[in-house]
Design a protein that fits this description.
alpha/beta, formyl-coa transferase, domain 3, 2 domains, six-stranded parallel beta sheet, elongated
């Protein structure tokens, strides 16, 4: 926690070089940084594309400030021999390199897996791409949007009479980032046991396929195709968002039969419980009168009344929040779910804290995303002044 007492962190002493851009790779490196890894962000001298992405505050990208928190920035152009040499030397002292170039790009620069691992046999090289390092689509340019489309996610999202729906945020990248961080930790554990590093090949598309596994299995064995049905579920009912009389919204989920029964009693439709189809969630989902009954009951009441009634009935309900609600919520405030991080460019910025809690070695966020090349002298001079190429000396100010 910012300003909190220093504690030994679980990844303290681990050095990670993040030479990836935009989301999936940087998110993975950010997770490692939250828990103590020393993360060195390698940017092109023209600046990382995330620096000009999304909402800005005083000309600074807030996406950059959040995704690249806890990192040190250096500037290297890997097209240049001197900078490539500096990168090779840095990787020789690192535990992890995370990259997301199109397959073959590092090899073209003379920095392929064979070169990096020969230079540092204990290195874990984590490669994040849309389609993976091999296969017919490996050399295609790709982003999370393409993975969201090709995984089947978009086809099953949206209203029944509408088009396929893409997520409103980089979901594919976020899931791949989590998988990449997990892959790094598994590879490091294997290194502890076996002595050598390895290459982790993380595909954004396969990361999403992993989430949709039981849907794929269902299609394979039964031919069942997921259908677009908005916020409803094919496996349980009631499950939807519902508009209250004051214009606000709530979300209701009754995956368990016992919860569905409580909801029906609450809204005065207990007779539906005795229907033979009510016992199975997938059958309840086919009977739209369940959903309509809940919607009609909620529409006659304001949100505080709805939430109070559902909680009294021990039925699952939640308000549909705007970000203003998130920042004001007492539960999130007490747990420190959103923290305020100091920043020399914009004063401070609120952002989510570490995504999970460790009782003995909790994560922390000490700084928002750095300025371009802010830590070049600190990082690169550690290689030794006599071993730094002229261009790197220029970047470090020596």
């Amino acid at each position: 926690m910012v300003g909190g007492r220093h504690r030994q962190l679980p990844l303290s002493g681990l050095t990670v070089i993040d030479v990836s851009t935009l989301f999936a790779g940087p998110l993975a490196a950010g997770i490692l940084g939250d828990f103590g890894a020393d993360v060195i962000k390698v940017e092109h001298p023209k600046g990382d594309p995330l620096r000009s992405y999304g909402p800005m505050c005083d000309e600074f990208s807030l996406a950059w400030k959040v995704v690249n928190r806890n990192k040190k920035s250096i500037l290297l152009d890997l097209h240049e021999p001197g900078d490539r040499d500096a990168f090779l030397r840095l990787s020789g002292h690192a535990d992890v390199v995370i990259e997301n170039f199109r397959p073959g790009t590092l090899e073209k620069w003379g920095l392929g897996a064979d070169v990096l691992t020969a230079h540092n046999p204990r290195l874990v090289l984590t490669r994040v791409t849309a389609f993976g390092q091999d296969g017919p689509y490996a050399d295609r340019p790709g982003f999370g949007t393409l993975a969201e489309a090709m995984s089947g996610l978009a086809a099953m999202s949206g209203e029944a009479d509408g088009p396929p729906l893409l997520p409103a945020f980089p979901l594919g990248d976020a899931v791949a980032g989590l998988n990449a961080a997990c892959a790094v930790l598994m590879a490091l554990r294997a290194r502890d046991r076996l002595g050598n590093g390895q290459v982790a090949d993380v595909s954004i598309t396969e990361s999403l396929l992993g989430l949709l596994g039981f849907q794929i299995a269902a299609f394979d064995k039964t031919g069942a195709r997921p259908v677009r049905q908005g916020n409803r579920s094919a496996n349980s009912a009631p499950r939807n968002v519902y508009r209250c009389s004051d214009g606000t919204w709530v979300a209701v989920s009754a995956s368990a039969r016992s919860v569905a029964e409580r909801v029906m009693r609450l809204i005065g439709r207990a007779e539906l419980i005795d229907e033979p189809w009510f016992a199975a969630g997938r059958l309840r989902a086919r009977h739209h009168e369940v959903d309509r009954a809940v919607a009609e009951w909620i529409a006659e009441r304001d949100r505080p009344s709805v939430i109070a009634a559902f909680r009294a009935a021990q039925a699952a309900v939640a308000p549909v929040y705007e970000f203003s609600d998130v920042l004001a919520d007492p539960h999130f405030t007490e747990r420190g779910s959103v923290i305020e991080v100091p920043d020399e460019d914009i004063g401070s910025v609120r952002m989510p804290g570490p995504a999970f809690r460790l009782s003995g070695t909790p994560g922390r966020v000490l700084s928002a995303g750095p300025r371009p090349g802010q830590h070049a002298k600190e990082v690169l001079s550690a290689l030794g002044a006599d071993r730094v190429e002229p261009r790197v000396q220029e970047l470090t100010g020596d």
